[in-house]
Write a structure and sequence with these properties.
about 70 residues, two-stranded antiparallel ribbon, 1 helix, single chain, three-stranded antiparallel β-sheet, 5 strands, mainly beta
Length: about 70
């Protein structure tokens, strides 16, 4: 019996909507092939975002709080 992963969450910055070096933070939730995108009501500095980890670089206390929120 094989099991497939039917639930995924991806966090990313929507760079097309960036203003003043900050971009809105979005989450994509995928369940059984259907996906939905949510704006997380956070605007994140483009330079603090680590694309490979889908998290903020820990350079300030505020970034630690946002990373905790994402967890």
């Amino acid at each position: 019996m094989t099991r497939s992963n039917t639930f995924n969450i991806l966090f990313w910055l929507k760079l097309a909507s960036a203003k003043n070096r900050k971009a809105p933070l979005y989450a994509r939730i995928k369940v059984k092939g259907k996906r939905s995108e949510l704006f997380l009501k956070q605007r994140i500095s483009i330079f603090d975002w680590d694309t490979a980890k889908s998290r903020l670089k820990v350079v300030s206390d505020e970034n630690k709080l946002v990373n905790g929120y994402l967890e």
